[in-house]
Design goal:
Keywords: Membrane, Transmembrane, Transmembrane helix. This protein is about 20% helix and about 35% strand. It is built from 2 helices and 7 strands. The protein has a 3-stranded antiparallel sheet. The chain has a two-stranded antiparallel ribbon with strand order 1-2. A two-stranded antiparallel ribbon has the order 3-4.
């Protein structure tokens, strides 16, 4: 996503045999709290839905987990490297 010719947000999806999920989603610090992360997430989820995906996996850090929890239920918490959380919907 761009704003005034500058990258404001980016992210991707992954799809492989046995699973699908969200790759890193990032929003420029100057663009936080403007809804770009939510828009970007909805676009990526819609794309996975178009591909027939019914379960989405997301690994995230504890810092980003509160944002992820706004969109994903149920959530499985895995405390491993860096205290990652895994969310599935």
């Amino acid at each position: 996503m761009e704003d005034a010719g500058q990258v404001a947000a980016c992210g991707g999806v992954w799809l492989e045999k046995g699973g699908a999920g969200l790759a890193w989603g990032m929003v420029s610090r100057q663009q936080h709290r403007r809804g770009l992360g939510s828009v970007q997430l909805r676009i990526r989820l819609a794309r996975l839905h178009e591909l027939g995906v019914r379960e989405v996996h997301l690994d995230t850090t504890q810092r980003s987990a509160p944002f992820a929890l706004l969109f994903f239920l149920p959530v499985t918490v895995l405390m491993g490297f860096g205290g990652w959380w895994t969310a599935t919907d």
